[in-house]
Amino acid sequence: MRGLLANKAQVIRAPGLTPLLRGFKGLNLWPRLVIAVTVGFLILFGIFSLLSLKAVNDSTERILTERLVITQMAAREIDRLLERGFHELEKATEFAAFDPDAPSLTEEAHMLAHAYGRVGTLSLGVYFLDTQGRVVLSEPPGKLPQGADLSGEAHINKVKETGTRSVSDPFVDPTTGKPAVALTIPIFNSDGARIAMLSGLIDLSSEEILGSLRHSRDIGQTGHAELVDSRGLIVASTDFGAFLKPGEHIELYLRMFQTGETGVETVPYVPWHATAEEKQDEHHVMAFVPLSSAPWGMAVGGTDRETFAPVTTLRNTILLAGAVSLIILWVLTLIGARLLVRPVTKLTGNARQMAAGNLEQPIHVGEGGEIGALADSLEAMRVQLKESMGKALRWGEELETKVRERTEELTARNRQLAAVSAVATVANEFRDLEGMLNRCLEVTLEHSRMETAVVRLLDGQDNRLAVACARGDFSDFPCRDRAVDLGECPCGEVASKGAPLYLSPTERKSFRPSCRAPEAHAVAVLPLKSSKGLLGVLYLSRRQEEPPGPEERETLAAICNQLGIAIENARLVRALGQVQAQQELDRMKAEFISAISHELRTPLGFIKGYATTLLRDDIAVDPAEQREFLQIVDEEANKLQRMIDELLDASRLQGGRLQMDRRPVSLKELLEGALHKAALNLQQKGYTLVAQAPRNDVEVLVDSSRIEQVLHNLLDNAVRYSDPGSQVELGVTIENKHAVVSVKDHGDGVPPEELERIFEPFYRGKSSRERGTKGTGLGLAICRGIIESHGGKLWIESSPGKGSIFFCTLPLVAGDAAENRGQKNAEKTMKKGTG
Length: 835
Fold this sequence. Notes:
Layout: H1 2-12, H2 18-25, H3 29-92, H4 106-119, E1 123-130, E2 135-139, H5 154-162, E3 166-167, E4 171-172, E5 179-188, E6 194-203, H6 207-214, E7 224-229, E8 234-237, H7 250-259, E9 263-268, E10 283-290, E11 296-303, H8 304-307, H9 309-355, H10 369-429, H11 433-448, E12 452-458, E13 464-472, E14 484-485, H12 490-497, E15 501-503, H13 505-510, E16 522-530, E17 533-542, H14 550-615, H15 623-655, E18 663-666, H16 667-684, E19 688-693, E20 699-702, H17 704-720, E21 727-735, E22 738-744, H18 766-771, H19 779-789, E23 794-798, E24 804-811, H20 814-819, E25 828-832
Parallel strand pairs: 19-21
Antiparallel strand pairs: 1-2, 1-6, 3-5, 4-5, 5-6, 7-8, 7-11, 9-10, 10-11, 12-13, 12-17, 13-14, 15-16, 16-17, 18-20, 19-25, 21-22, 22-24, 23-24
């Protein structure tokens, strides 16, 4: 408290504040009220202004958000129209082969007419192109002559190079004179080879396109919209005749295209055409949203003056009304304060006389209400003060004595509480008994003014007291390395009787049994007890003539009680941990025996059944059935062999004996080998396998048979936990010195709490139990062991219900690692399986 007051005094004596505070203290009540009221109203006006500005800012944000939403809606409408054109072209390929080399193109011509009609007023024409970009058919017929070469068009070349759909730059259709854009898609045969292309012309001046832009006029008289390409040129606009002219805000458009973000900004108005002089310095509030179906962007906005007009009016109205209201309130408040101050000033003079010791003059102000009541109270106080002065002096002396005694008592209690709290705190910080006792004894020495502290715990078997922990100077004690019997010394005496001992050096000489502690030591021995009985003793000593006094003894007794609780808790925690560990071990043993017994029983049952059938003489088995039975026996024997191999691999991994024959291997050949073995099985079960290979083949330093085993297990795992008809994806990327192989499924997924546990041996997750899949739970554990033996990593990314992706890294051969550093993801796609 004294430190706080001192700091406060230092603040008040600051050089800049001292003159102001002294001047304020020297003023009378009326000037003080004027200053306080004025400052209060200024603060209130400031708060009111801040709240008003916040309301204005919120209104501004709402206006900008609404403009961005309008722009997003217009952009989505343009995206929908473009996607509709792509959809009709792609749908046409589902009903005709579109093979330029086919003997008859009747179906193709029919589907072109159908697609042209489906697109409606948006369409200016549809072309069927061969793989080189030459016109095979067109709709309407004769739109382009057969054989017309479009291979020089950029969007045609993009489709030829990438095999994906494209959108051309805007242009003027020479046959209609209308602004247009071409949508082109590739056509593939059953082998995945591109054989042709379909291209459709979209009318950018159609009502459907311009109608989406005209809605922007609803935002105000200056509202306008522009659809621009990545060069900032106008594709469509509410301004007639602006096609392929520079956008009115081209700097904003180009910057937004670079970042790929949406936004709302206030930007200069730079029209592509001549404009009136008063509009040359205009600024527009424009919202920009990029399209997802084409490299275009939608911009909607209006002048900043019209956009922010409501906000400006609101701000000026609020500030003016607030200022006038606060001035009126300030004047009325000062008038009321002046009327209040007059009687208070008179009462102040009377109070000063009372403070000076003049209790003879009566107090009267001639006012009613609270001020009159205050005057009457002061008068009553004046009368009572004379009677109370004597009593107050006597009571003050008595109270001072009681406060001193109570303070000393509370100080002692606080010391005891601090010692017990410190012991309890450090006891909760440790789980092991020895560490807890060491720290507790250090705290005990800090709070007890003792020099040596020893805990002797009772051994339940031989009933002796052994040193569990010691702190302080304990090296000179002869009994430091030995246990003592009950009754052998003061420690044994306290343990046998359960009562504490406090001995001075003189009392120690005559006490029996004698204590072996060094001479001139006062000792204290206290029992450590719990609800189950005696735990041991606490031995304390110091080089003083007197043992601990009454106050110290209460503190030591409280510490012993807390130590007893801490020792009992530590033992309970250790016992509980042993029980839990044994229960977990028993559970794992039971699950392992159950899983292995179940998995081994199934193939053994098949082998036993079919072998017994073949050996029976009373059943005639023709050669075909006999071969079928032997194939089943062979398959089940292979399953049995695989389970035994998994168990052996798991044992070798645990013992560090799993050998790896690492050699440079072509990554492409390694993946093709694994895919060849897995594709037929996946196809028979109704799954689709999609694989992505690196653009350039690289070599990895691996044991090829072990890596094939890992890939087989990961693909088999994807099949186990996803439904037939879904897709399994195998991907490869090159990152620094490793190849990263991923296996993705679209199945059940793995809960977050199981992401690491699924790699534990014999662990089977919730999805395994729900689907009833078979297995020993060793596959993923073996896979991780194999990958880590190669110096790689195996991990999973998954969400429940969204499938899983397993990743593993394989080391590249040194030359390939340097050559492929920084290479991007694979672009070549191979599809296997029919789904």
